[in-house]
C-alpha cells in the first residue's frame, strides 16, 4: 500500500517523464554541479577537498547521463569497497564484476527505465539518470564530519522533491586522497 506522499509523487511521475521525453532531454549529457554550502564540525579538511569531491560528483553525474560508469572504479578505494543502497557493501572486485554485466544493477537502477519498471513492478519509478535530467542542475551541501569524511547532500535546481530519491554520497579520505564510499 502506498503512502499519501508516494501516491502524490506517483501521480506526477508520468507527467514528468512525458515532459522530459518531449523536451528532447533523452540525450542530455550535462547537468551543472556546484557547491552551495560547506559545513565543518571539527577538524578542517585538507586544502582542495571541496574541489576534489565536486569533481568526482560531476564526473559521476556525466557518466550516468552518458550511461557509462567506467570511471567509477577510479573513485573507489580497493581495500574499502563501496556501499550501494540496493546491494549493500561491495568489494572493489565485486564492483568491477558488476560493471561488466549486461543487466547490471547500474543498467537497471541508473540507466534503463523499462528494466526498472519491470524490476520494481511499478510504472511510477525513475532511474537515477532520469532524476538527474529532471534536476536541471545540482547544488551540493558538503558536510565534513571530520577532516577525513564528508557526506554530500544533493539538491536539485528544478523538481526539488525528486532529490529525495537519491542517497547522499559519502566520501572518505585515505592516504591524502578522497574516495567515494556511498554512491547516490
Features:
37% helix; Nuclear Transport Factor 2, Chain: A; 184 residues; alpha+beta; 5-stranded mixed beta sheet
How many structural domains can be distinguished in the coordinates? 1
DSSP summary, beta strand count:
7
Instruction: State the helix count.
Output: 6
Structural class, by secondary structure, is: alpha+beta
Largest sheet: 5 strands, mixed
Q: Write down the overall mean pLDDT.
A: 88
Regions with pLDDT < 50 over 5+ consecutive residues?
1-9, 12-27
Strand arrangement, largest sheet?
Answer: 1-4-5-6-7
Distance between the termini: 26 Å
Q: Specify the oligomeric state.
A: single chain
| CATH fold naming | Nuclear Transport Factor 2, Chain: A
Q: What level of helicity do the residues show?
A: 25-40%
The SSE order reads HEHEEHHHHEEEE
Task: Please state the overall shape, judged from the principal axes of the Cα atoms.
Answer: globular
Sum this structure up briefly.
With 184 residues, this protein is α+β, with helices and mostly antiparallel strands. The chain has one domain: Nuclear Transport Factor 2, Chain: A (Roll), CATH 3.10.450.
3D structure, described in words:
There is one protein chain. The chain has 184 residues and is an alpha+beta fold. It has one domain: Nuclear Transport Factor 2, Chain: A (Roll), CATH 3.10.450. The chain has 6 helices and 7 strands; from the N terminus they run αβαββααααββββ. The protein has helices spanning 4-22, 49-65, 92-100, 105-111, 113-120, 128-135; strands at 33-40, 82-84, 88-90, 138-146, 149-156, 170-174, 177-182. The protein has a 5-stranded mixed beta sheet with strand order 1-4-5-6-7. The chain has a two-stranded antiparallel ribbon with strand order 2-3. β2 (82-84) and β3 (88-90) form a beta hairpin. The two termini are 26 Å apart. Mean pLDDT is 88; it is low at 1-9 and 12-27.
Amino acid at each position: 500500500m502506498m503512502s499519501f506522499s508516494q501516491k502524490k509523487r506517483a501521480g506526477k511521475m508520468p507527467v514528468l517523464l512525458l515532459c522530459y521525453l518531449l523536451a528532447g532531454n533523452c540525450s542530455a549529457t550535462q547537468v551543472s554541479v556546484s557547491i552551495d554550502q560547506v559545513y565543518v564540525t571539527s577538524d578542517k579538511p585538507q586544502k582542495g577537498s571541496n574541489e576534489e569531491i565536486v569533481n568526482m560528483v560531476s564526473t559521476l553525474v556525466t557518466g550516468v547521463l552518458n550511461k557509462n560508469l567506467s570511471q567509477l572504479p577510479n573513485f573507489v578505494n580497493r581495500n574499502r569497497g563501496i556501499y550501494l543502497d540496493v546491494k549493500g557493501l561491495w568489494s572493489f572486485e565485486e564492483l568491477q564484476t558488476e560493471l561488466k554485466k549486461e543487466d547490471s544493477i547500474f543498467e537497471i537502477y541508473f540507466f534503463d527505465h523499462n528494466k526498472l519498471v519491470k524490476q520494481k513492478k511499478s510504472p511510477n519509478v525513475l532511474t537515477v539518470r532520469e532524476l538527474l535530467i529532471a534536476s536541471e542542475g545540482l547544488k551540493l551541501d558538503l558536510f565534513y564530519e571530520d577532516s577525513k569524511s564528508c557526506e554530500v547532500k544533493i539538491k536539485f535546481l528544478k523538481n526539488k522533491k525528486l532529490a529525495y530519491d537519491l542517497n547522499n554520497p559519502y566520501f572518505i579520505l585515505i592516504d591524502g586522497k578522497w574516495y567515494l564510499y556511498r554512491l547516490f
